[in-house]
Design a protein that fits this description.
Blueprint (H helix, E strand, L loop, with lengths): L1 H18 L11 H4 L2 E9 L12 H25 L7 H18 L6 H15 L5 E2 L12 E2 L3 H10 L1 H29 L7 H18 L5 H12 L12 H10 L5 H5 L19 H14 L14 E2 L4 E11 L4 E11 L2 E11 L4 E9 L2 E5 L2 E15 L9 E14 L4 E10 L13 E11 L1
Antiparallel strand pairs: 1-13, 2-3, 4-5, 5-6, 6-7, 7-8, 8-10, 9-10, 10-11, 11-12, 12-13
Helix pairs in contact: 1-4, 1-8, 3-4, 3-5, 3-7, 5-7, 6-7, 7-8, 7-10, 8-12, 10-12
Keywords: Signal
Length: about 450
Amino acid sequence: MKKRIIFLFSIVILVSLSTIVMAEDSKEKTADEQKVQLELPLVDAPFNYQDGFYLPSMNQSLKITKDYFKLGLMLLDKTMDKLNLKGNSSDQVFWRGMSYILFAVESSRLPGADGWLHEEYHRAVLKNKGIDSYNGIYDLKGGEFTSVSEIDDQELAQMKAESNPDFVRLAAAGYEAQTELVLSLEKEKFFYNPRYSNGYRLTYWMDLFNNYDYLNACTDESTDEDVEEMIEEEGADMSKKDFTGLDFTAWVHDLFNPDVDYNQDRGYRQNGGGIDRYIRVSELSSEEMDYLNKQRRLAMLNALDPMLFGIDEFRLNENLAFNVNVRHYLTSFGSSVNLNFYLKKDDLKLFMSLLNQSNYKNYFPGIDLQLIDYPITFKDKKIKLTPRLMLWSQPKDQKFKTSQGEFGALLSVKLSTVINDKWGWNLKVAGKTDGWVASNVYLDQNISLQTGLTYSF
């Protein structure tokens, strides 16, 4: 497995070096496009308060990770400029690209970066069911695996018994996190093209590649050796155990086995470490392995993205531009392959996604429409308005093997305004019916309120 990772990672580095450092857009940037905006998420209710006080939610951790990369890339670019490495000569491109790669690789194991985000999405799903946990990123250790730990076996058993769809979503949440990070950065790059955003492209490559490679590893029986090493290292100390081991062997196993008893299904470890939570690749049925391989192949559709290759927009005229790409998600009921459209013309910024959702053998369509930061004036106050409407059909009760669908919807409105030339404030209200929505931890109906500050420079 290590040889495969090194080989594939070398491909990513070669492609990244050739695409990551591009000449700045020759089109003069507006004042908004020149700004770097950090988001300071303060409240996500009811999630922050529904089981004591807890931070961060999915959306809060996503914004924190975006800020992490924005600040890091800004500091790198400023350093490169001082070293006179700004430009497009071969040496300048090489060293600038290598600085981005070093930053992305070395920081991925630090709090706030994408590895941390991956684990925080897992932890948000757990906390939504009242389960506390610990993010192993804070241990600042290297290695191939990071654990979400300090969880009792019977808490997991109860969660699976009460809501298998949430339990399935728990295993897939890290994949969801990294896919959402890429989507969020791509939307910002397309609609605003902020300064210091050339390095975004490496994050696209790193996170989409990481998702694919993790899926690939979960179809390779040699990965079982790593699982046994994890078990040996953990010993009988149950507080060290990861919540699930390999994410996607657990994900597919629990999709196919929604009604089994968790304790009997997993069995017990021979080393006295309680329930044997980890599903080995060799333990998957042929049907489970076929479905996981199908998802691995579908994940390759993420490469259908011009932004990965330095094409941030297709410009039809001076004021009109568009782009399109494909995104693959693992969900609580199966998967979704979304076809995303980006369009901007003057103050009009539109994002539309056609949701191609499926469970075991059935298709469930949906659509996601967003009008982004549309400027309006209310009582002499300038406000930016972001309404969003999602409509979908998803499997009834989020079940994997049902042919029955049920209608669902999400409606949200976000208001943003400035306090002064640096600070801004935003408020978002969202309501949804039962159903899976990326970065929304609730599979049942919910009304949420989010607010925070922004800082631009």
